[in-house]
Amino acid sequence: MKPRFASVALNVPAGSDTYSYKIVDDISDDMLIGRRAVVMLGNRLMEGYIVDITDHADIEEDKIKPVEALLDKEPIFTKAMLELAFWMKEQYLCPLGAALACMLPPGVKARIQKMIVLLNEADVIDNTKSLIINALRDNKGRMALNALKKVVPVKNISSVLAELERDGVIAYEYTVKESVRIKDSYNEAAVSGSISTVRPVQQQLQAITAINKAVDEGEGAFLLHGVTGSGKTEVYLQAIQHAMDIGKDAIVLVPEISLTPQMVALFTARFGSSVAVWHSRLSMGEKYAQWWRIKNGQAQVVVGARSAVFAPVQRLGLIVLDEEQESSYKSDMTPKYDAREVAKRRCDIEAGVLVLGSATPSLETYYAAGKGDMRLLVMPDRINGKPLPHVDIVDMRQEIAYGNKSIFSRKLLKAVAYNLKAGQQSILFMNRRGFSTFVSCRNCGLVMKCPHCDISLVYHSDKGQLQCHYCGYKIAVPKVCPKCKSPYIRYFGAGTQRIEHDVKQIFPHARVVRMDTDTVTKKNAHRDILRLVWRHEVDILVGTQMIAKGLDFPEVTLVGVVAADTALNIPDFRSAEDTFQLVTQVAGRAGRAAKPGMVIVQTYQPEHYSLQAAVKHDYESFYRQEIEIRERLKYPPFSNIVKISLSGKHLPDIIKAAEDMAGELHCYLNNMCYNNDVEILGPSPAPMEKIKDEYRWQIILKVDVHIMDDIKYDIKRMVDRYSCASMDINPYSML
Ligand SMILES: Nc1ncnc2c1ncn2[C@@H]1O[C@H](COP(=O)(O)OP(=O)(O)OP(=O)(O)O)[C@@H](O)[C@H]1O
Ligand SMILES: [Zn+2]
Fold first, then answer.
1. Which annotated residues bind Zn(2+) 1 (predicted)?
2. Is the dihedral of CA 285, 291, 294, 296 positive or negative?
3. Which CATH architecture has domain 202-383?
4. In 218-302, which ranges are continuous DSSP H helix?
5. In this structure, is the dihedral angle defined by the CA atoms of residues 359, 395, 404 and 460, taken in order, positive or negative?
6. CA 725 to ligand 2 center in whole angstroms
7. 466 CA distance to ligand 2 middle (Å)
8. Which atom of ligand 1 is nearest the CA belonging to 228?
9. Computed over its alpha carbons, how large is the radius of gyration of the chain?
10. What is the pLDDT at residue 111?
11. What is the pLDDT of residue 190?
């Protein structure tokens, strides 16, 4: 038989994509490609993935080690998934092994143990050797290396063992353990009423027909642009039903925050046990069980957050991305992939259909639809002709001029009071948690900052603490200023706790609940709060973006955006877009059922175009103004952004590295005559210069879309030479 070699991808940061190993077993290529294997790299045992079988090796044959063990009974990656991983490696410049690793649930990673087996009990005089042999004998002739090291704690044990192996006294063996306990208990209780079959309205029917046709043909990409409450979910459900009817599977991606029990219940009610749910609140064992249910074809519909784009469905028919503009679709860890792009690519490879849905599509996606890269489906009306809510802007500068120093305008208070009287529900939205967002001394002006991060501490009234929202640092509120000892400590900038507190004082009889990351830490807290709102056991819901999107609260008629400026003032080229999306989405929670809705937006910049467009529910007008700015300033979609981050504990080193790298980049672009195609911003301190005791600097490149592929490998190589640097292509956040 001809020798065969496996090309194995390993999840190691640098080095080559694959390594060659000898195949000793008599197994067909098809049962090897895509299979997990245990191999030695240097003297480390590792789990790897066989991506190819060849008859030649990339190094001299006698240096090649064998594959130590094969895992699973059959390949875990299909050819299509391997192809997707190869594409990710090129697209995101990540190791092939890292791309493959992120396609598996965390629990699938094997724990490999090196075992020592006693072959014969030679008589030895060497003290260490006899200790080893005795220990092995006491353990029935077989011990894990780590356990043996504990019993025989000598430094040179490895070389002693090597001698014993050479003399045929012992041998090595590997055992492989999956590191999770398998648990298949995941079952969210249905929370909303049962779902009867829905007859689609005209605009839904058009969208469903177009998508179904594409699913039949196995090709197509759509942007479903439907206003809030236009019934996008029903379009997804019916398209998925159709895919299932013709024997195909579907993946539905939703942002983590909208993976609510409501969403899950909706899908479970429609598709029963064919649904697999995938989100970060699942334990490792639950994820593992779900993954195998999908892999084995027991689940045909997967509902999940970003990483569900890799769900191992067998016959892909459809991938839906709801709220496609959400930043959570972009991973900020290696591989730094964008689930929208991965979904598109996966659909191309597996003859699936892509549906991106949103009331407020990202500029990039809408631009792509305009160019004809995907088909635009529009649903301009709410279901049953319900009007979009009326939006009013309140200029908070005038409130101050009037002498109203509270966080609520007169108009908003009046509207809440009216709603309470009428027995209707209200939402107060605030994009920051905590009580006060910064605390300072009135005497000397000192602002209390985190000692580890360049950021103000947030006051949390329930615990009487100041907290850092980045690293979790906490201290009790100081009674006097740490610098000047004055007792005049003041609190500024309201967060959700403060809103809740003030609202309870003003309306003592109102039933108020707050929903933000602080109140949903306990298991099921999230579900319980939503349940209170659905059952109308709450009058006023106060919350962060957690309540802004995707939720269908039929009885809410008033939404107050307490401070629209918090998102507007973030130093990021997307801040106008984020503000427009947020205000439109949160406004979209109002007036979804019988009664008309009303929205009040408080701001210090009422003339801002993103707010003006949001007031009129005019996506087109916002898009036209914003896309013009992007084009003029060469921001995406008119360029690719490469963010190079440098971080470390010693600031001068970081600055030096940033300056050196910028110099190198300038040189390189000069030599390549790319000066007109790439703009270099920085080096400069990141907007948050210090986080968790690490200083952060950055260099931003705006790269012409046409030359991105020509230079990205060179830039990556440059960045890789600096151990303190990393790069992200088209990051979602510039902070
Ligand atoms: N054809 C229909 N007939 C009656 N009711 C419908 C129909 N389609 C959807 N609905 C109902 O309309 C409401 C709004 O639909 P849905 O939540 O899907 O809107 P959406 O477009 O996803 O909005 P958002 O962008 O705000 O999440 C839901 O309560 C849904 O059950
Ligand atoms: Zn901190």
1. 441, 444, 481, 484
2. negative
3. 3-Layer(aba) Sandwich (3.40)
4. 232-245, 261-271, 284-295
5. positive
6. 21
7. 11
8. 26
9. 29
10. 67
11. 38
| Ligand found nearest the CA of 262 | 1
Closest CA to 153 of 133, 131, 174: 131
Atom number, ligand 1, closest to the C-alpha of residue 379:
21
CATH topology of domain 386-435+494-631: Rossmann fold (3.40.50)
Q: Within 13 Å of residue 348, how many CA atoms lie on the same side as its CB?
A: 11
pTM: 0.85
The reply to whether domains 202-383 and 386-435+494-631 share a CATH topology is: yes
Nearest CA to ligand 1 atom 26: 228
Structure tokens at 454: 């360049």
The answer to whether domain 640-729 has CATH 3.30.1450 is no
> Average pLDDT per run of 10 along the chain, which is 735 residues long?
85 80 85 90 86 83 82 89 95 92 75 80 79 88 87 84 86 67 43 58 95 96 94 94 95 80 82 86 81 90 93 95 92 91 97 96 96 95 84 92 91 95 93 86 85 84 85 86 87 89 94 88 81 90 81 85 85 89 87 82 92 92 95 92 92 93 92 88 86 90 91 90 90 79
DSSP secondary structure code for residue 227 in this structure: -
481 is in an annotated binding site: yes
Measured from the alpha carbon of residue 471, the closest ligand is 2
Contact 606, 397 (CB under 8 A): no
Tokens of residue 423, six digits: 């027995």
Query: What integer pLDDT is reported at residue 178 of this predicted model?
Result: 57
The residues near 314 (Cβ < 8 Å, ≥ 6 apart) are 249, 295, 297
- DSSP secondary structure letter of residue 470: T
399 — phi, psi (to 5°)?
A: -60, -45
> What integer best gives the mean pLDDT of the chain?
87
Give the containing element (helix H, strand E) for 426: strand 425-429
Distance 572 CA to ligand 1 centre (A): 33
Q: If residue 702 lies in a helix (H) or strand (E), which one and from where to where?
A: strand 694-703
Between CA 661 and CA 698 the distance in angstroms is 10
The pLDDT assigned to 340 comes to: 96
Residue 517: the pLDDT is: 83
DSSP structural state of residue 167: T
Strands (E), 598-674: 598-603, 640-648
Calculate how far, in angstroms, residue 478's C-alpha sits from the geometric centre of ligand 2: 17
**How far away, in angstroms, is 728 Cα from ligand 2 center?**
23
Domain ranges of the chain: 5-106, 111-178, 202-383, 386-435+494-631, 640-729
Q: How many residues does the chain have?
A: 735
Question: What is 5-106's CATH number?
Answer: 3.40.1440.60
Residues in contact with ligand 1 by the CB-under-6-Å rule are: 198-201, 204, 226, 228-234, 359, 383, 550, 552, 588
**Closest ligand, as measured to the CA of 449:** 2
Query: Which amino acid does the sequence have at 224?
Result: L
| Topology given in CATH for the domain delimited by 111-178 | Arc Repressor Mutant, subunit A (1.10.10)
DSSP letters for 510-542: S-EEEESTTTS-STTHHHHHHHHHHTT--SEEE
Q: What count of Cα atoms within 13 Å lies in the side-chain half-sphere of residue 321?
A: 28
* Side chain identity, residue 254: V
What distance in Å separates the CA atoms of residue 706 and residue 710, rounded to the nearest whole number? 8
pLDDT at 194: 40
Output the CA–CA distances (angstroms, integers) from residue 687 to 645, 684, 698, 701, in the order listed.
12, 9, 9, 16
